[in-house]
Amino acid sequence: VQLQASGGGLVQVGSSLRLSCAASGITGGSFAAGWFRQAPGKEREFVATVSGTGINTYYADSVKGRFTISRDNAANTVSLQMDDLRPEDTAVYYCAVDVNSRWYTPHLRDYDYWGQGTLVTVSS
After folding, report:
1. Cβ–Cβ contacts within 10 Å for residue 116, how many?
2. Residue 94 and residue 116: Cα distance in Å, rounded?
3. Residue 71 — pLDDT band, cuts 50, 70, 90?
4. Nearest CA to 20 among 95, 84, 111, 106?
5. Residue range 21-33: average pLDDT?
6. Are 36 and 49 in contact, with CB atoms under 8 Å apart?
7. Which residues pair with 95 in a beta bridge?
8. Mean pLDDT across the stretch 62-87?
9. What is the pLDDT of residue 36?
10. Is the dihedral of CA 87, 107, 92, 38 positive or negative?
């Protein structure tokens, strides 16, 4: 299984970015997926997760209403639309998959495979 994350960059406060994660070596829709982030000097934290069907989602309180996770099982991609970005959203963002379940999970320990991370910097 390989995950390739992309879409990070440097943006101004209030801007939008869309992160994408391309999965290979695994069948689309057969796994739960999530996005996590890690800011400098902090632990990796949960951001958003989506079930295998893409119907069910769950978000961290800090991003609820601003971020939207989605997936395209035909293309085997998982995306994170980030709107109204704030300086505190600055972090390396990681996509991850739980190959043992199609149900979403916010728990880092449930994820088996991780992408390489993409840096998001929000400047004020």
Report:
1. 12
2. 7
3. very high
4. 95
5. 93
6. no
7. 35
8. 97
9. 98
10. positive
